[in-house]
Amino acid sequence: MEDDLVHLQVVVVLNPGSTSTKVALYSRRGKVRDNTFRHAARDLEGFDPVTQQLDFRYDLIRPFILGEVDARGLTVAGVVGRGGIVQPVTGGTYRVNEAFLEDARSCRYGNHASNLGTLLADRLRRELGLEVCYTVDPVSVDNMWAKARISGHPDIVRVCRGHPLNVRRTARRVVEQLGKKLEESRFVVAHLGGGFSITAVEQGRIRDVNDALLGMGPFSPNRAGALPLRGVMRMCYSRPEEEVTRILSRESGLQAYLGTDDLREVLQLIEDGDREAARVYEAFVYQIAKEIGAYHAAMRCDVDGIIITGGIALSEKFTEDLKAYIGRLAPFFVVAGENEMEALAEGAFRVIDGLEEAKDYPDPPETLQQEL
After folding, report:
1. Does 59 lie in the same domain as 24?
2. Strands annotated E in the chain
3. Are 220 and 317 in a shared domain?
4. Do residues 276 and 222 both lie within one domain?
5. Same domain, yes or no, for 139 and 272?
6. Which residues pair with 200 in a beta bridge?
7. pLDDT tens by residue, 132-175
8. Structural domain range at position 30
9. DSSP-assigned states of every residue in 82-135
């Protein structure tokens, strides 16, 4: 009976993206129900900053959430939303307080759809009568080594921008397989989705990562990655900044070369005998392997494993081709999928079940400084 009651307890997970809002109910046993609400571009026009979309998105997801809770006789133990671009934090599960909400709402650190995650969570927790809601490993998790911030010119500083939610969750999963503690582990984790973040993870902390949006790392399905500077300069001097940003962040990579950002379509082109697709795909794998090798060196060639995760990792051909380059460096693990919803739910339950203490935002300056 007690086990049945625990099963009826759920956390509501909210993950807003640029053109969709993902919603799910998770029990301690796993996903109970989920839904993805797609948003047409015309419905989002005129909202600036992006957090002005709060009422629009909440009114869409509210009937689904409350309807599922009521129909299934569920008890909501917590609400957790994806954390957006706020002040640098050390990582973990955070209580969403007014300071976090204000920084997310104002978009003072970045105008990104993920900023809506905690605003939606706070709106829902108020309606459900809960005292607190949570976020887990927001986009602004930053434990970079000081040496990793130096770029090559003092006017340009490398920033910590990647996929900490899935990267840290995936590291936890592999640590469990190895029978180790997260605090005693060292990994290179490659999150390969629409954007790529190759990450040095030491003791669960993100110590270095390529800029997943612009400027560093291998090219992705639609992002340019690192580019020869002279070519970038020519592009910047010949086109408006907004156009250059769009091209490099959304119209580059596989999309620019082959007209598709879907790896499955690229592999089908290769199977059909398309030589250009084969050439670009080989470069795609090659650049990812080089970046992973660089991060392996940055960890002094002493890691517990190399972990490949994200949507691209669903391709068995890709993971085998990549392993042919780097498989001898360290134990090779594949944890496919983006796993953000699971990571949010697991982080909330760790706090609810007393396995982890929630943090307050912002982190105390002395704590953050020690981490950096």
Report:
1. yes
2. 9-16, 20-27, 30-38, 75-81, 93-95, 134-136, 150-153, 156-157, 186-192, 196-202, 205-209, 305-310, 332-336
3. yes
4. yes
5. no
6. 188, 208
7. 999 999 989 999 999 999 999 999 999 898 899 999 999 999 99
8. 2-144+341-371
9. ---S-S-B--SEEE--HHHHHHHHHTSS---GGGHHHHHHHHHHHHHT-S--EE
